[in-house]
Amino acid sequence: MQTTCPKNFKLLAEVFEKEDVLDEKMNELKASIEALNKEASASDSKALILLANEGKVSAYGQGSRYGFVHDVFGFKAVDENLEVSQHGQSVTFEYILEKNPDVLFVIDRSAAIGGEVGAKDTIENELVQKTNAYKNGKIIYLDAVNWYIAGNGITSTQSMVEEVKAALE
What we know:
Rossmann fold, 6-stranded mixed sheet, 9 helices
């Protein structure tokens, strides 16, 4: 995740003479990310990011496609040895139970592209129900469109910050 202003944003702001609006929005976004990072970094909670897709799950760790939850937002990883991959590391529900995350961030790929099996049906099975995340109500279902399809805009990134922040409440 880029935390500096992309060139295309600057170009559009110049074309429409809205550089001041862009600067204001970018400053607001940076401040909210910094506040989230400070709070998440101070927490003892360990998180796991999952992509649910038609009954299967892939996990994402630091440095991966969704690793900015750890790298930028500041959540500690429940597993620092996950494969860094655009498509995540395929994992089992036994793995999730073994790692026992305090927080599960779940992206529902099926919801983003029109699949048949929803993330909640996939994730909240007998094994996952034994994890700290489930027991403490810390399974956070993230907006599939923002996370899977349309991320990296100012508005979508601000929404991502707000969704992830819910894990700290």
